[in-house]
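Project standup — Tuesday

K.O.: blocked on the structure for the chain from last sprint. Re-posting the sequence here as requested.
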Amino acid sequence: MVSIDTVYQRVLALANKEQRGYITPQEFNLFANQAQMAIFEQYFYDANKIGRVPGNDTEYSDILNYLEEKIHFFEAERSVGINSSRTFYNLQSVSDPYKIGNVSRNGFTCEKINAHQIKEINRSPLLKPTISRPVYVLKDDYKLYVYPLDADVILINYIKKPITVNWSSYLISGSETYDSTNSVDFELHPSEETKLVIKILGLAGITLKDPALYQAATTEDNKNIQQEKQ
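H.V.: unblocked you, prediction finished:
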């Protein structure tokens, strides 16, 4: 977790250092959530890129392990019941899914296939799904179809999206004071604090029409990315 107030205070201090302008709490919250999602999605891009590197180089293995540690914060597991018509499992009941991982039923892992494959598979006696070798199709509307269908509940492992962060305050003598009760911290790995500050400053630079602030934040962000990959 990363403190929303720590990031907020650092962003304000750096943005106001040269009287560049004031970032309102509403603007900050918008930038903060956009920055958090950008960092979160970069995990999977980097992991996929490193995973394609041939061989088992220790350097890349260490980076991949570090990325997996960051992604671990968002791993979740949930049981999903079948719908009333007993035809599919509705994943809309799952809180903010980003990527569906392992799907299992009665202890057997379901293999993911696409909607075009199921007809071909069902025609083949050798490939036709069985209770011990089930398959599933995930539709765009988060309806998950399992073949053969023989259970009321399935178990899914998934990566959830980061929670929506919020810096909240209340007024004391006309000034805004941090409200920890109604604020929501970042779910990112603690090491991402500096990166969050830099990305939020970059977004603020666009809003404040300050190219220097945007450029400085972008340069620092690129430098951090290069350092992480060394």
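K.O.: great, moving the ticket to review. Helices lie at 4-15, 25-51, 58-71, 115-123, 193-207, 211-228. The chain is about 40% helix and 20% strand.
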